[in-house]
């Protein structure tokens, strides 16, 4: 194996309600569960080094979010009255998404907004419109992190859940 492979950063997802993650060595592909419960109180993302029984030491990033996020790139739009403002969905989870607008758009965090997109899973295509609330603004008037409003009532969308499992 090349030195490049050994230094590849592994990103692992550690849900807030679990203590163990499965880590695979990029050199020999040996995998094992590791208890990382002692890192529960730290930031949402934590950088560590893991050591494999083969001797390889490699960097890992522990992502401690409530739900897994899948990086995606598909078109959507924000409904604002009769106008549809184009956006690109950049990541998706069971409870929210992140998108970039194609033009500057101010979305007030105090008010709900409607985001629509097509969820394509193999040959199936489902058009979804979700009421969302702004949680993060990553680039003013361009890049937003939002939470689905239905999540506040305790539910998550089954179509999105099935999409994330594939």
What does this structure look like?
- It is a single chain.
- The protein is mainly beta.
- The chain folds into two domains: 61 residues, no CATH class; 96 residues, predicted glycosyltransferase like domains (Thrombin, subunit H, Beta Barrel), CATH 2.40.10.220.
- 7% of the residues lie in helices and 52% in strands.
- It is built from two helices and eleven strands, in the order H-E-E-E-E-E-E-E-E-E-E-E-H.
- Strands 6-7-8-11-10-9 form a six-stranded antiparallel beta barrel.
- The longest helix is centred in the C-terminal third of the chain and has 8 residues.
- The protein is elongated.
- The N terminus is likely disordered.
Give the topology.
Layout: H1 3-6, E1 10-13, E2 20-24, E3 31-35, E4 45-51, E5 57-63, E6 70-80, E7 83-92, E8 96-101, E9 113-121, E10 124-139, E11 143-148, H2 158-165
Parallel strand pairs: 1-5
Antiparallel strand pairs: 2-3, 4-5, 6-7, 6-9, 7-8, 8-11, 9-10, 10-11
Structure in a nutshell:
The chain contains two helices and eleven strands; from the N terminus they run H-E-E-E-E-E-E-E-E-E-E-E-H. It has 166 residues and is mainly β.
Which descriptors apply to this entry?
166 residues; mainly beta; Thrombin, subunit H; 6-stranded antiparallel beta barrel; 3-stranded mixed sheet; 2 helices; 11 strands; 7% helix; 52% strand; elongated; disordered N terminus
């Amino acid at each position: 194996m090349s030195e490049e492979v050994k230094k590849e950063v592994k990103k692992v997802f550690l849900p807030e309600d679990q203590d163990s993650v499965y880590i695979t060595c990029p050199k020999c592909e040996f995998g094992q569960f590791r208890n990382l419960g002692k890192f529960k109180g730290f930031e949402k993302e934590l950088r560590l080094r893991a050591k494999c029984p083969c001797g390889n030491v490699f960097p890992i990033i522990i992502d401690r979010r409530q739900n897994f996020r899948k990086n995606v790139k598909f078109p959507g739009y924000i409904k604002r009255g009769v106008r549809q403002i184009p956006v690109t969905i950049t990541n998706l989870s069971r409870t929210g998404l992140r998108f970039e607008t194609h033009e500057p758009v101010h979305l007030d965090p105090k008010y709900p907004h409607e985001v629509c997109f097509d969820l394509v899973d193999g040959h199936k295509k489902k058009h979804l419109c979700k009421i969302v609330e702004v949680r993060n603004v990553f680039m003013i008037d361009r890049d937003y992190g939002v939470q689905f409003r239905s999540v506040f009532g305790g539910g998550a969308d089954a179509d999105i859940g099935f999409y994330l499992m594939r």
